[in-house]
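Thread: "does anyone have the structure for this chain?"

Original post by V.I.:
We have the sequence but no experimental structure in hand. Need at least a predicted one for the grant figures.
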Amino acid sequence: MTQQLQTETVEFSKEERTQLLRLAHQSIRAGLENRRLNTLVPSAHLAQPRGVFTTLHLKGHLRGCIGHIFAENPLYKAVIETAAAAAFDDPRFVPVTAEEADSLQIEISVLSPLVPIQPKDVVIGKHGLLVTHQGRRGLLLPQVPIEWEWDREQFLTELCHKAGLPGDAWKHGVQLEAFTAEVFGEASPGESLRESSVV
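Reply from O.Q.:
Generated one for you, C-alpha cells below.
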C-alpha cells in the first residue's frame, strides 16, 4: 500500500496557501525582471516567523529546492526568499529561465520547531529529519521518503549521505532532530496565479 504523508492539524487555510504560492511565483518573476518584489504584510498569521522550504517542479521533475530550517523571518518573507533562491541559487541546477517560469509547479513546506529524536522513533510520512555531526549537516523533508518509497533505515542512511557522512553514521551518535511539516502545492503549473485575488 502506498504510504501517505501524515499531516498534523491543518494550520493554513486555502486562501493563505494560495497567497504563499502566489508570492513564490511573483518572487521568481521579479528575479527574472531584475526588480525587487514589494508586498504588503498579508496577515498577522503569515507574518509569524517560521522555517520553510520552497520546492520547484518542472514537468514532473525537481527544478530547485531551498529553505530555512529555523524560524528567523516572517513566513511570507521566507517564502519570497526561498522561492527566488530555489529558482536561481540551487547549486544542483542552472537558473530558471523566463521560458520555464510559467510552467513551474510550486510546493511549500512550513516546518515545525526541531526536536531531538532517536532513530527508532522516526515515523515515515510524519517526520522530516536534520542530522548534524562534525560540522556537517543534512536535511530531508518528510515527503522525501514517501516519494522514494524508503523505509526508516533507508531514510536515515540517505539523510547521512545528504550530509556527506557515511551511510551508517546515524548508528554512531550523530545529533538527530525531527520536525513535521504542513506541505501544500499546486495541482497544475501556475495554479495559484489564476485563482481570484485574496484580500
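V.I.: this helps a lot. The chain has six helices and eight strands.
O.Q.: and Residues 14-112+181-194 form a domain with the Glycoprotein, Type 4 Pilin fold (CATH 3.30.700.20).
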